[in-house]
Structure prediction request, 177 residues.
Amino acid sequence: MLSQKRDSPSRVLKGTVPFSQPDEKWMALAIQSARKGIKKSAGGPFGAVIVCGGRVIAVAHNKVLQKRDATCHAEVNAIRLASRKLKRFDLSDCVIYSTTEPCPMCFSAIHWAQIGKVIFGTNIADVQKRGFHELSISSRKMKREGKSPVSLKAGFMKKECLALLVEWDQKENKKVY
Ligand SMILES: [Zn+2]
Prediction:
C-alpha cells in the first residue's frame, strides 16, 4: 500500500482485527527470553513477545536491574521495540504474549499502544507470592474499570510460565523489587 501512513496500521478498523488463537510457539519465545533475563540477572523473571500478522515483531525480557530503570518491564520493553521496528505507536493489529499478567503500568502502556489482545500465563498473585511489590489490580479489573476494548486470555501455558517463577525461586542472590 503506497499511501500507508506510518502512524496507523493499514486496513485496520478498531475492534475488527480477527486475532487468531493463542499460539504456543510465541509464548515459548517469551519464556525463553525471560529465562535469558534470569541468567543475566537483568531483572525479574518475565518475558514478552509481540506478534503482528503472524510475524514476531519484538521479543523482550525484564531489564529493571540491568538498566536501573523501574519502567523496564518486559511488556514496556517489547512495546518500545515493536514501535521502533514498525515506525508507529499504534499497535492495534498486534497481539502481546506475556509470561505473567501485565501490571497496571504495563496494562496502561498496552492500552496507549492500542494492542488488540493480551495473552498471559501466570497472574499477579503468583508474582506477589515471590515478594514482588505488585499493585493488586488485575488486568481484568483494569479492562473493566477503564472500559478497555483489549481482549484478554489468562492462564495460557500457565504450567510452563509457573516453572519460570520456580526457577527464579531457586536462583541465588536474586533481587526482588
Ligand atoms: Zn509491568
